[in-house]
Amino acid sequence: MRGTIWTALVLLLSGVDALRVGVAPLCGAQRAAAATMQLAPAPAKTKTRQVTDGGGSGKGGSGPAAIVAKPKLMKNTEEVPMHKVILLGDEDYEEEPVCEALVRVIPDLKGEAKEKYLEAQKTGKSLLIVVPFETGEFYQEQLAREDPMIFAELEQE
């Protein structure tokens, strides 16, 4: 039975409509609809414009075909506003865990994390890095999630 169904399916897909196994005969309207039923059309091909080098003969088409490239998209020349990530000093901070967290969250501070920490403790604030807003917001949130919590603020440059 299974082989018969597959055979009928293959024949139906290939356009043969003569084999009917256990199916009631089609009426006139159904037969007409089945005869006009087609598979979905293939997707349209993309068109590429080709320009030929005339070669000076005036008739065109005598030279090799050259594909004309589409113009590139214009880049946005507007600069992204930068923001400062500022470490706030706190009496409860301990130097080693804060410096390790600073390097873990902001890898660019590897050699200067201790200096930034000491400056924040001494003056109350220390500029950590200047980055685009989204990156600065990410750094601020990650520092706030550290244990112990590290306070930082974001200021537009």
UniProtKB/TrEMBL annotation:
<protein>
    <recommendedName>
        <fullName>Adaptor protein ClpS core domain-containing protein</fullName>
    </recommendedName>
</protein>
<feature type="compositionally biased region" description="Gly residues">
    <location>
        <begin position="53"/>
        <end position="63"/>
    </location>
</feature>
<feature type="region of interest" description="Disordered">
    <location>
        <begin position="41"/>
        <end position="64"/>
    </location>
</feature>
<feature type="domain" description="Adaptor protein ClpS core">
    <location>
        <begin position="79"/>
        <end position="145"/>
    </location>
</feature>
<keyword id="KW-0732">Signal</keyword>
<dbReference type="GO" id="GO:0030163">
    <property type="term" value="P:protein catabolic process"/>
</dbReference>
<dbReference type="InterPro" id="IPR003769">
    <property type="entry name" value="ClpS_core"/>
</dbReference>
<dbReference type="Pfam" id="PF02617">
    <property type="entry name" value="ClpS"/>
</dbReference>
<feature type="signal peptide">
    <location>
        <begin position="1"/>
        <end position="18"/>
    </location>
</feature>
<dbReference type="InterPro" id="IPR014719">
    <property type="entry name" value="Ribosomal_bL12_C/ClpS-like"/>
</dbReference>
